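Forwarding the complex inputs:
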Amino acid sequence: MRKHTLAAVVSATALTLAACGSDGADSGADDAAAGDYPKGPVKVIAPADPGSGWDLTARAVAADLAKEKIVTTPLPVENKPGAVGTVFLADMVEQQKGKDDVIAVTSMAMNVNTAMGQTPYSYKDVTMIAALSAEHFIVVTPKDSPYQDLDSALKAIADDPGSVPVGAATDDQFPFSLIVNEAEGDPTTINYVTYEGGGEQSTALLAGDVQLAIAGVSEFLPLLESGELRPLAVLAEEPIEGLDAPTTAELGYDVTIANWRGFYGPPEMPEEAVAFWQDAIEQLSTSESWKATAEKNQWTTQFMKGEDLTSYLDKTQQQVDEGYALVSGG
Amino acid sequence: MSTAPTATTVASRRRTERLAGAAVAAAGAVLLVAAFAIPEPVRQSPGLGPRVLPLVVSVGLLLCGVLLVLTATRRHDEGVEEALLREDDDAVMELLDPDEPPVPLRGLLVVLALLVAYALVFIPLGFVLSTTLFLGTITTFVDPRRWIRNWVFAAALSGAVYLLFTEVLAVVLPAGLLG
Amino acid sequence: MDALQSLLTGLAAAVTPVNLMWVFVGVLVGTVVGVLPGLGPITAIALLIPLTFGMEPTSGLILLCGIYYGAMYGGSITSILIRTPGEVASAVTALEGYEMARRGHAGPALATAAVGSFIGGSIAVLGLVFLSPVLVELATAFGAAEYAALLLGALLLTSTLMTGSRLKALVSILVGMALGVVGLDPQDTVPRWTFGSLELSDGLNIALIAMALFAVPEAIRHLALRERDVPERLSTQRAWMSREDLRLSAAPYARGTLIGFMAGLLPGLGPTLGSFASYAVEKKVALPERRKLFGRGAIEGVAGPETANNAGVGGAMVPMLALAIPGSATTALLLFVFQMYGLQPGPQLFTRSPDLVWTIIASMVIGNAMLLVLNLPMVRIFVQLLRVPPPLLYAGVLAFTFIGAYALTFSFYSLLVLLVIGLIGYALQETGFPLTPAILAAVLLPLLELNLRRALVISDGDWSTFVTRPISATILALVVAAVVVPLLLATRRKPAIE
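Prediction (whole assembly, three chains):
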């Protein structure tokens, strides 16, 4: 068995969580989905470059929907990159209103863009269809670092923030600021080094440039497994099995924000189409093809729709807004 | 095979140089103003801020542009012999390079107009139509006698490339009116 | 030798008729896609990943590796023949390669590129196999301060080698820098020179800049001159390298392999730095009478960078396989592909799934050899492209740059960028500004700024970090010795330069 089991366990845990979360919203959509929608091809937009996370999600979902025969009309995937998806978000709001033949991939970056004012639009301006997966954040340190636990790292930051550079992508700085804030530190003084992703962060951690970094769990998995990196905390309510890391909940920090990933459609998308896609993505989330895809890619399945999704997005947006306010000292 | 430049080419070359210098300086000035418009980051990182490099670049362009204008006004143009005397190999080689004839203004304007038109109709008309029109017109402008060959080439290349990209490579090119 | 044994076992496993067929298909498809402007290795792999769903892991990986190598080489074909680089690394090849083609030496240029790619690619794989453990240490010894010192050296080295008017070369560098600045600030995430455009906040795509500065001005010029027939000097192209060409290429192959491989080891710099550095080194070490030919079709300037380019791929595999750290967008995608097939790169890769790993490594060797076998005979055919009548050729080049640009964002925006930068490039070229320094600065300067500022953030604003860290201090000392001192000496000897 060469496949590491961690990702599988992660998805299993999240599936249980998702099942608990979406109990109330399961009925209702079925009648609408029985109609003759979709009549023609539906474009699946990846608002990023080929090979990026959104692109790979869009292509995998389109392929699995076809393979499982959940959707039988063609699903051409198109790339519309631009400013972390905000270019296409604007296009969706301004040009595609009321259409039923286009959906797009999105993620927590949408909340961040809105918080930072990179776009005048938010998830409230489009039709949010469903969330399909989520990835927890993790705080890591090199194996020989002086920080034995999250608290000692946070204390070092409180004592002399300048001397403790923290490696994080722009989007991932918010969750960390929230933790520092809960630890009664001053988030405006954190010395963030901006990296583009896990690869750059891993290089910096191993080279000793930074002693602390935060990113999605999958970004650090290989080096966590080999012991080159040590986990200080996973930002989650429940521990992740197979990964010997304390959760923020255990450590007493109420910061459990996660990077969700899902789909949205144009504003005023016809109800029939919305119901169809909610249903299709829900079916997909439990299908064998998707389970295999998710496991291969270390994606954690976490299906949400309707009210659950709305309240989840509201909470995430609130946390991100709060994180941004902390960083900017506003 | 290059000959020493005549008085008129020297004068026109200097004019071009001055013009180029002025354009560079103007670009530098615009960018300098834009560099001051770069917003302060919400959180100040230690070290260099986001404005330093843009300031260096725009001031650099401004100064270089002014210098270009000045040197074009003062410097006298030289022939191969003078460059040889100076033992400046680069200058000699440059002067001896294959003759690059000057581009006629009319030809340039036609090509540029066609390029801009091509960009404007690329999406509305779709790839096949716009590209056939662009290739056919521009090749026939260059070589009007072989217009049949030109238009066959234009249609064939556009069609073949469209099929290659959309059918084989799954790159979606605009379908436009034919879509 | 454990590694040797394993490699041979891997070779045995990879050399099955089916796998050989996949390598062949991969290399062929890769070359074709790489030839199309704007479609580099990343797009090629991303587009073809769905095709490999449902294939056996070994075959799928072999196919994609073949595509990678093929696309890398395909990019250099158009660079040489029509000065249309499909990606940044082959922009360097265009410098001398296109000049060679203009002088009737397209054949030798293509051939030396193919041979160099093979040598660089194969030796790098051997380096990957036998030296990985040592090299991993090296790759992780470099922090932001060291990267900054290295990039400063590379930038100074290449910019001291410019010919012609220093002032004009400097303007060109500044133009390149300006293009590189546009976009969101990499450390503080504020928009710089985006003039309120959301699209510009992504920055200008470097492949788009290369196409706009190299291909567009040249095409505009030839079309505006209304050239109807193939000029005399282009109609007879030598198809093969002479003994002299091979002799001149030999040392650049060796240096290119070393430079490319070492640069490839450093995540984030990858093949780009390697090929630029190799070009600079070749020009620097050339004998005075050969150095004059740089910029006018020096075969060393094709052989070195092309070798370095492919050796860099092997180098980038070291941190990717051993640490799961991708050094570039392309290796990030390969990493994803590996994971898709259930292969988790990282320190435990070789113990966890040895068979598959060794088969892949073996297939890289095979892919390189296949590329050579496939492309050497094709050189004759590729060269025929230059016999296409100029109006058709250059109009076609423009159409292809439009496709390449469009395929980046699928919107009017990148067509606009292509036109605007293309016109700037044309104006610069016609008024005697060299364009190479602009490309160079547009590639290297953003990397230098990023690492310089990162190093300063990490040291909390303390500039002494560059001289107190031993590796960084050593690099800086070397830079001073190799670049600054000769420059000062030269200035003293020849006070009147401009």
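The beta strands of chain C are 183-184, 191-192.
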